[in-house]
## 1
Amino acid sequence: MNLVPPGYPRGVDEPTTAPTHRPDEQPAPDEPQVTSVLEDDTAVVTVVGELTEAARRPLVRTLTDLLLSHAPLQRVELHLREVTFMNSGGMAVLVQLQKLGQPRGVEIVLVDAPEAVTRPLQLAGLWHRFPMVEEDR
């Protein structure tokens, strides 16, 4: 049974960048830029722009593609340094990503989260759900 869509990498040993959109699709104008690189059993996903409901599609698609094509995935690092804004829709996306990873034992870690991300999480009482780390520079 082939679970990986045609044109997507599978079983790749070196870091790759997963596409955010299918080749025949154009990104919506309000979607953030989402890229991913696989490093051993860790996926590094970088988000640039606003973390709102519009981020759901590219982030869920990226995580789903990683979960289906790169076993065993142990950790997903969401690099959020360039996120400029997050609202309740963005928080819901983060919770959804966590729920996608939990049954597979995949830890979702927020890396370099700016105040635009941490403050809404604190106010909503969700900050304790996510491990947060600062990247060494």
## 2
Amino acid sequence: MSSGNTQSIDAARPEVWGKDLMADIKDNLYFTQNGMMGEGENNIVQIKNDLKNKKGDTVDFQIVRKMSAVSGVTGDDELEGSEQQLTTVNEQVAIDQWRDGVRLKGRLDEQKNAFSMRLAAKSALTVLGQEFLERQFFLKLGGVNNITITDVNGTVTGKYCSWSNTPDYIPDADTAAGSGDRYISANTSGATSLADTDVLTPALIDQAVLKAKTCTPKIVPLRVNGKDYYIMFVHPHQAYDLKQNAVFNQARREAEVRGKENPIFTGALGIWNQVILHEHEYVPYLDASVALNSFRGAAVGTDFAKDAYRALLCGRQACLYAQCDNPNAWSEETFDYGNKHGFSIAIMGGVQKTMFTDEYGVIAVDTGSNQGA
């Protein structure tokens, strides 16, 4: 038997790169890095891998609702025949595919560059895939299905809001009234009266927590280091307003999150009333001058008077992510008689907000902002 160096097979390289790319995307997601995403129930985003090894177009998530008030028996009374039944809800998440790619200028241009264009393409497409998935989580959690939604810089972010699954929007009656089973507006008169001065405050967070604890079904908090916590995602402009609040700043000085080992605390803005606050730029934002209506969609929903920011208070299993086998996660092609190279990324899966029968595991909190856009 002859000896020598083991060489890779050209045909296998794209598959290796694809697996590496998808691992990079998943490991660098905000939810993963901060301990909020995993296969267990005690996560904001619950993952299911049913379609990684088999074919299909939907993934079933079995959601077990919290049991009713304590009943049971006492003493030597017979328990048989008096047991409770578990209430389970089946949530189906449909899958879809999203792709994007880059094409290099040509071999001469590649020759002029000292760095690897292939590595540069992989790095850029990895970040693009990460951003696509993260936006999906926030669009679904926020019930955003307005394709004209932008970020504060005017970049359209709602184009793929209905990718894989159409988001369940906040009922128009709730935004009009300023309150609902899973909704609070900083202005109790509703969306049409929302003003820049209607900002996020500790009192508004308290209202969201009260709603989470008393709604039906209740929103179950995460168990972190033996204690119960909700997670609230806030837009940077909402975070700015909160940092100007004297009551919140006093609480931060007296009970800072530094030193906590669990990753869920590491990137937190602070803790207030069992709520770990996380600032993220993908929290839904509505530019009223562009969208001219609501988070729901063009020419429908409740008109918002001012730009709005939708903070999201989440409990367990607030969002579902169906992962699939992704054989074409990374593809390479040549064009122009081999002179040009192209690379593409593909993400196959599905994202949806969890519905517990007819309600969901997140409370939307709409506010204005003194910071403005």
## 3
Amino acid sequence: MPDSLPYDDSDYDFNGAGVHTALPRREVFSGLESLPGERCLEIFRMMVRTRALEERTIKMSKSGEGHFWVGGPGEEAFNVCLGLQLHKGSGPAHDYLHLHYRNAGVLVAMGMPMLDHVRQMAMTATDRHSRGRNFVGHYAVPEWNVMPVTSVIEVQYTMAPGTAMMQKRHGGDGVSIAVGGDAGTAEGDFNSCLVWSSRPDAELPVLLTVTNNGYGISTPARTQHSEMRISDRGEVFGIPGETFDGNDVVATWHALERGLDYCRRLRKPYLLEARVSRLHGHSSSSGAARVPNEPDCLKLFEKQLIAANVIHRELAEMVHHEAHEEADRAVEIAMSEERPTAADVERFTFAPSPVDAVYPNDYTGLPR
């Protein structure tokens, strides 16, 4: 491979709209697996934007611009690769997402503006996910089948078989994806998902995914889990799966692709465990300081792209700069927007009901 790059900066779009279509045709390898350079650049940009968003919201929690922060710096490779492979849409023909509070990268990859995430961190009345009622990262997007995220640990695993049952009856190749952490797999909800998605002759297209960062808030996983791999939990239920390096973008992309393809084709469950890093602790409750000596999927991928001559350092720096500017602009906008008031407490609690004779079209269902 020549030392000099066979292209110049004109091959790229520097205006923040993405990478130009006329890109060098290169492959990025991990073992025997690879991804095209074009796809890698798309993933890289989404990962950088997600990291900039997480870092800016951490800053919000420390500066008084926001309140409680929880997120997933260190899980960008998994989240972005998942978000880019989904069949996005509304209804059983499309994928359903049962996420937890560390999945900002999934939504960013699906097309969520940074502003939507920042509004929830700032608890503005314009927060489209919860109107300022919920913590950051607790999404709800009906038009993308993103089910409401809750802080109640791992209940998403018991919800996924419900949407998967509907999808199997409907037909097509829609999959219900449940995402949780390693500590949450100790909850009964995880086991319930294994049972309900694997019943003989009634298997369901559920992709169970576990992002294992080695900790349950402050409890090391090694003190709680006797099994070597969480993915082995599916074996007794006849659920195939695998454990992979969630800091390796190429390996992560293909593992998710295999899992989704299995669920789409066979309409049966699959279990994935991604070994990921936790770069800023669990939440702002522990200070959210940068954790040293943890592998950083973003830095590793950037070095890989530079070494493969898919990107050069100057362009990488520009992508980072644009992402941080985008995050700063989102915060500036959100901080100027209205906040919920006491009068909003009873609003949007229940959906309006035109057949309710006492309170027609009333959002609260409460007497006045």
